[in-house]
Automatic annotation (TrEMBL):
Keywords attached to this entry: Cell outer membrane, Membrane, Transmembrane, Transmembrane beta strand, Transport
SUPFAM superfamilies per UniProt: Carboxypeptidase regulatory domain-like, Porins
Membrane disposition: Multi-pass membrane protein
Similarity remark: Belongs to the TonB-dependent receptor family.
Organism: Chitinophaga costaii
Name this protein carries in UniProt: TonB-linked outer membrane protein, SusC/RagA family
GO terms for cellular component: cell outer membrane
Length: 981
């Protein structure tokens, strides 16, 4: 089964007319059908193509080609609370097919979207198994709140916010979307403009991602197996000093013979080799689907296991999916989409929100880079050897990275997503659907840092640190959806959609922390053995009620109008602003349907689109932030008895309200030569006001800060996508590409404030984009005879920073904005070729013009003693080697944060290359394909760190483009098989 361009069509419905027999085509466009009729008439139907009927006489095999339906204009696309024909869509919506997502084996569906959708930037903040990933649709839309889009899986709303947070902004936490199996996905639709997202009102400001999983089809049951196995390896290592070079550095820093004969020590221990490894990855899924006229089903089971390239890190997913649809009568249909998973994540401490020394002691990657190559990893008995127990305790300030790998840091998460529905059609054109969507998740977090990895001297004060945390979350959503669709005469088509929804979020957690254990025998399973114990618990609840209406109108299939309005009420906002109203409108003109275009046969579709509307962001704050809050504080003693104190912590704000985004969009869609060439482009302008911002308060107020609607920002951009079928004969070749240009600007801050300090190296500035870096300017090294400027804190042989204002001293006024983390543009490119059973695909993605602040260099270009440095510092400054790049060794010294550590983060990455072969089978197996695949084959970049695609602070909107020892990228080599029976 193929389209008229000879490309195979998957999922074509093949039915015997006037009988219950039927089936669907497989991934090769092939099908097998048995019938008792002598000369059956087969009907072939597929969305976006003209239905074709064929009478079978004595043929054993048939070849069928379907023609594109010019009125359908391609496939039906999923929109909020329903579907539309692609040609009738007036908003900015992009779709990704399941084949594209599965082309690159990933653990997270967002990874499969990266580089394939214009207007969407995906950043793998951490490459750890199941690690943190962020997605931005048309830029950053918040400061203190989330900029993550809303994810809707089969109608169930899901957040990509990490289930727990850490000091690095969630970068070490598992992404909730890693719990959804990408192999189950049928399609992904990304809603980008206001007319497409306003239907989700208060949750649509950051865009919406609609994920649809596979459902059953009428016909013979089909069993499929999809699996792969592979190996992963790191793509880059840092070049550190060997033992001889390090020993000489130590002698120079301390001006004594710490090591008697440095040259005799040779290479020493390569600590990166100690913690990095070649790691396996595997995925296995069995799926069964089929159905009769009344009941269709699809179910699957999945096992995914990824060992990390850092020792003792891994992620495991067990998942089950059931999609069931049953028609009770002509009027009533019921069904469910059930997805449940159990996930185990063993993480390793990577990434650091701190500078310098803490980065070397808390991140296993930092510990490995900083570990003295003169020390030993293991004791004679094979256990990890703490550094403080070697060389008479000289290196107590650094840690053995193998010890950090022994820390238990495990999350076990059970999650169930369900959509239970009943759909009634009392009369033609009218449908009522009731959805009941529970999302239930629970996480058990286990932590234990053993006594065995501590220095002997430190054990005197007690050893062993434990924690056990339970987090339970229940989201209950009900939606009543009313749909009426009709045609008036032949020229007018009208569709009305009305929705009432109510959603409650209930979260509770309890934690026990303990320290000072007698031994490591029970780890954190017997915290009552610890000398010190503390407990805490919390519970929160919030609710969102929504009312929505949408009208889709088309005149002569030529002029399109969409009107949308939604009102949302949320308990988390101030008493005076519980409700928000979010209207939007879109218009479309299908020029290709005009009479004067009928003779222009080269053009299949030409459509102009425009939209304008308002959306909101309810995820910008948590519950109770509009209220006066209190919390437990210090312990007080009355009559020698301890009592916990309670103190006010939050100022009430009855005017706290929604963040609102007002967006205008103009777009064009063009298809040529029977859809062999397709082009789409959009220009947008989005202004977000009433941004929630934490304003600092004077100490005299008794509070540190207040949360209010104190800022505004703007995103403007252009996005374009093109795809083409170059050859469509025996040799097939198609290509696709997209590019996005987005400009972000902070428009205002509270009280006329023009600048706000975010960290030692980043600021917010009115009139500038978020993610702005501001530091001193590196001006070389102080040479012999130079005068060291007051305030610089430097020395001869130390860093010289530029006296920008030429006042003869170094102050904060000498700091300058040195760049920002936002790219000039992002892009993606893919190509697919096939010939005689063989197929070859390649996919590339890239980012251009962004800056990355490399804090790894800051740490390992600062020779202050007791830790290893970059090998390049063998060329450090000395009186006989007046280097103007690397400072001399200086005990306990510090270097300033300068533009020296700001690097070009641009890159072009080959995300995937896959070569496959369709094995011809004639019996039992209806189709089989074997393939070999390479992920992250190469990256072209000037960035000196492990990888330019990084953000230590996870989903932060202000601290972006910062590299401070996060989990490194892996290249994977895979062999896989896809079989259908």
């Amino acid at each position: 089964m193929a389209a008229d361009n000879s490309l195979p069509l998957v999922g074509v419905s093949v039915r015997v007319l006037h009988a219950s027999e039927g089936t669907v085509t497989n991934v090769d466009g092939a099908f097998t059908l048995t019938t008792t009729q002598a000369h059956p008439v087969l009907s072939f139907s597929f969305t976006g193509y003209l239905t074709k009927e064929l009478t079978i006489t004595n043929q054993q095999t048939v070849a069928v080609s379907l023609e594109v339906d010019p009125k359908a204009l391609g496939e039906v696309v999923v929109v909020g609370y329903g579907t539309q024909r692609k040609g009738d869509v007036a908003g900015a919506i992009s779709s990704v097919k399941s084949a594209d997502i599965r082309q690159t084996p990933v653990s997270n569906v967002v990874q499969g979207i990266q580089g394939r959708v214009p207007g969407v930037q995906v950043t793998q903040n951490s490459a750890a198994p199941g690690g943190s990933i962020s997605m931005r649709i048309r830029g950053v839309n918040s400061i203190n709140g989330t900029s993550e889009p809303l994810y809707v899986v089969d109608g169930v709303q899901l957040s990509n916010t990490p289930l727990t947070s850490d000091g690095a902004g969630g970068v070490t936490q598992i992404s909730p979307l890693s719990m959804v199996n990408p192999d189950d996905i049928e399609s992904v639709a990304v809603l980008k403009d206001a007319s497409a997202t306003a239907i989700y009102g208060a949750r649509g400001a950051n865009g919406v991602v609609l994920i649809t999983t596979r459902r059953g089809q009428l016909g013979k049951s089909v069993v499929t197996y999809n699996g792969y196995y592979g190996e992963q390896e790191t793509t880059k290592r840092m070049h550190m000093m060997d033992a001889s070079q390090f020993a000489q550095l130590e002698n120079d820093i301390y001006h004594t013979n710490v090591y008697d004969d440095p040259a005799s020590l040779g290479k020493g221990i390569d600590w990166q080799d100690q913690i990095l490894r070649t790691a396996p990855i595997q995925n296995h899924q069995i799926a069964v689907s089929g159905g009769s006229d009344k009941t269709q089903f699809a179910m699957s089971g999945n096992y995914f296991k990824q060992e990390g390239v850092i020792i003792n890190s891994n992620f495991t997913r067990y998942a089950f999916r059931l999609n069931l649809d049953h028609r009770l009568s002509k009027l009533l249909k019921v069904g469910t989409s059930l997805y449940t998973s159990y996930n185990v994540n063993n993480s390793i401490p990577t990434g650091s929100s701190s500078l310098d020394a803490p980065a070397v002691t808390t991140s296993i990657l930092g510990a490995a880079l900083g570990a003295p190559p003169t020390l030993q990893p293991y004791k004679p008995d094979g256990t990890e050897w703490p550094f403080g127990d070697q060389m008479d305790g000289r290196y107590r300030e650094v840690v053995n990275p193998l010890g950090l790998a022994q820390i238990l840091n495990q999350d076990k998460t059970s999650q169930t997503l369900a959509n239970i529905y009943a759909e009634i059609t009392p009369f033609k054109g009218f449908t009522y659907r009731a959805n009941f969507d529970p999302v239930i998740s629970s996480t058990l977090h286990d932590y234990y840092s053993p006594r065995s990895i501590m220095n002997s001297a430190d054990l005197a004060g007690g050893g062993g640190t434990a924690a056990k945390t339970n987090v339970n979350n229940v989201v209950l959503l009900h939606e009543s959806i009313f749909t009426y669709e009709t045609k008036i005469k032949t020229s007018h088509s009208l569709k009305f959609t009305g929705v009432f929804a109510t959603q409650s979020n209930n979260t509770n957690n309890n934690t026990i922390n303990a320290s000072n254990f007698p031994n490591d025998a029970t780890k954190n399973e017997a915290v009552q053995l610890a000398v010190n114990r503390t407990v805490s618990s919390a519970r929160s609840k919030d609710r969102l009620d929504s009312y929505m209406g949408r009208i889709n109108y088309a005149f002569k299939n030529r002029y399109l109008v969409d009107l949308i309005a939604r009102a949302d009420g949320a308990t988390k906002f101030g008493e005076n602003n519980k409700y928000g109203f979010f209207p939007a409108a879109a218009v479309g003109w299908r020029i290709s349907e005009e009479p004067f275009m009928k003779d222009v046969r080269v053009i299949d579709n030409l459509k102009l689109r425009g939209s304008y509307g308002l959306t909101g962001n309810a995820g910008a704050i948590g519950p109770y932030q509009s209220l006066a809050t209190v919390s437990a504080t210090n312990t007080y003693y009355f009559n020698h008895a301890a009592a916990s104190g309670i103190a006010p912590t939050g100022i009430p704000n009855a005017d706290l309200r929604w963040e609102k985004s007002l967006q205008a969009d103009i777009g064009i869609d063009l298809s040529l030569w029977n859809s062999r060439l397709n082009f789409t482009a959009d220009v947008y302008n989005k202004k977000t006001k009433d941004l929630l911002f934490v304003q600092q308060l004077p100490l005299s107020s008794g509070y540190g800060s207040i949360t209010g609607n104190f800022a505004s920002l703007q995103n403007r951009g252009v996005e374009m996508a093109v795809d083409a079928v170059i050859f469509n004969g025996a040799f097939k070749w198609n290509v696709a590409a997209n590019i996005t240009i987005n400009r972000n600007k902070l428009l205002s801050l509270t009280g006329g404030l023009q600048e706000y300090t975010v960290s030692n190296y980043s600021v917010l500035q009115v009139g500038q984009p978020l993610g702005l870096f501001k530091t001193y300017l590196f001006n070389g090294i102080y040479q012999t005879g130079d005068s060291v400027l007051p305030g610089s804190g430097s020395r001869i042989g130390g860093v010289k920073v530029k006296d920008v204002n030429t006042d003869g001293q170094i102050t904060a006024d000498d700091q300058k904005v040195i760049g920002n983390a936002n790219p000039s543009f992002i892009y993606g490119f893919s190509t697919n070729l096939s010939f005689k059973g063989f197929d070859l695909s390649a996919f590339f993605s890239g980012v251009q013009g962004n800056k990355v602040y490399n804090l790894i260099r800051y740490t390992f270009e600062n020779p202050l003693g007791n830790r290893n440095m970059y090998a390049a510092l063998a060329n450090r400054w000395s009186p006989t080697n007046p280097s103007n790049e690397y400072v001399s060794g200086f005990q306990g010294g510090r270097i300033p944060l300068t533009d020296r550590f700001l690097e070009n983060g641009s890159y072009l990455r080959c995300k995937n290359i896959t070569l496959g072969y369709h094995v011809p089978f004639k019996k039992v197996v209806s189709s089989a394909r074997i393939y070999a695949s390479v992920n992250n084959l190469f990256t072209i970049t000037k960035y000196s760190g492990f990888d330019p695609e990084v953000n230590t602070f996870g989903n932060s909107n202000t601290l972006i483009g910062v590299d401070n020892l996060v989990y490194p990228l892996a290249r994977s080599y895979l062999l896989g098989v896809q079989v259908s029976f």
